[in-house]
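Section 3.1: Structural characterization of target chains.
Under the original work plan, the team committed to producing a structural model for every single-chain target entering the pipeline before any wet-lab resources were allocated. The record below documents one such target. The sequence was received from the expression subgroup and is listed exactly as submitted; it comprises 145 residues.
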Amino acid sequence: MASELSNLLSVSEQKRTRVGRGIGSGKGKTCGRGMKGQKSRSGGKVPRWFEGGQMPMQRRLPKRGFKNIFARPVEIVRLCRLVGVAERGAIDPELMVKSGLVTGKGRIKVLGGEPIDCALHVKAHAFSAQARALIERAGGTAEEL
């Protein structure tokens, strides 16, 4: 095996290519940049989105909708996921964060799903109508913060 692992150099140990040091070096004169043009000049960088002067893609495509910068982020939790956490008593946002159901970066909304059989006492910022009905039908409480 010609290149054994013991002979390999890390990136920090490899020698940097020295350009512009004469024809014999193999990277002299044009220094590997080819002949004329924007990319051969110093500082001649072309942006990634540049398409050679043709109308760029981000201007050709139609714009739709908007991003509401004032919208408060909402984290969604399914009701069936709360059943596993229920044995610890009342379920509040701190308990949901500790058990990994939410990150705690936004408001918490509980959504419904299949019916549950245990009484849950849930505190969250919002509940869907179905989730509230399922919790109360099982004998629990849904408290909005």
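The domain at 74-144 is CATH 3.100.10.10 (Ribosomal Protein L15; Chain: K; domain 2).
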